Amino acid sequence: MYWARWTDENPFQGPKMLGEQIIKGMAVTARNFLGSYVKADRLVTVQYPDELLPQKEAARNFPFLVYDGDDWQKGLRCVACQICEKECPPQCIYIVKDTVRKPDYIGKLQFQPKVFDIDTSVCMSCQICVEVCPFDAIKMDVEYELSTCDRFDGLLLRKQQLAKPNDYYRKIHPAEAAEVDARLGAQKAKAGAKARAAAAANPA
């Protein structure tokens, strides 16, 4: 009695419609299963680790430090301002600022980090360090094959391990890197024009 009343009030929820929906669902499953043998866009798995899917540009894992030029020590964009260390929610970044300015890759004297460590066992990949960095010195990597048997020292990445060239950044995040390069180039051009104007106004 109740079932008859229920199906009368809801004609699309009866046993006949329910069976049709199951058949339709199975047809979709079969179509995708059979299609995966003939259409590459229907493939859902790869033979990992022999095959690797390309990472999406928006993917992110742990931070790395960007450097310009050929020398990673001189080319680091980081000036040890320690903003990322202060803003990091899990406090996984540890920085010691060098006591003297040293020439960067173009010869300009800059402060540099004497120590720059990131504990990836604590890092939650929130990207706040990237967002607060005023020098575009720290960016998010897409590397995920980072397993290690040493859960202490093996997960603590130091300055040399974190340093990666700007070309690498352009490779993994091309659109973002192009925007950053354009902005930094405009800033350098503006600073150069200002310096030339100052030199012209006050000749030696």
**What is the typical, i.e. mean, pLDDT?**
87
Rounded to an integer in angstroms, the radius of gyration calculated over CA atoms is 27 Å
What characterizes the major β-sheet?
3 strands, mixed
- End-to-end Cα distance: 105 Å
Describe this structure in words.
This protein has eight helices and eight strands, in the order ααβααββββαββαβαα. With 204 residues, it is of the alpha+beta class. The chain folds into two domains: 2-35; 63-174, Alpha-Beta Plaits. The chain has a three-stranded mixed β-sheet with strand order 6-1-8. The chain starts with a helix and ends with a helix. The mean pLDDT is 87.
Annotate the secondary structure layout.
Elements: H1 2-9, H2 15-35, E1 63-67, H3 72-75, H4 83-87, E2 93-97, E3 102-103, E4 109-110, E5 113-119, H5 128-132, E6 138-140, E7 156-157, H6 159-162, E8 163-165, H7 166-172, H8 174-201
Parallel strand pairs: 1-8
Antiparallel strand pairs: 1-6, 2-5, 3-4, 5-7
Helix pairs in contact: 7-8
Structure keywords:
Alpha-Beta Plaits; three-stranded antiparallel beta sheet; 40% helix; single chain; 2 domains; 8 helices; 8 strands; 204 residues; alpha+beta
Question: Could you provide a short overview of the structure?
Answer:
By secondary structure, the chain is of the alpha+beta class. It has 8 helices and 8 strands. A hairpin with a 5-residue loop joins strand 3 and strand 4.
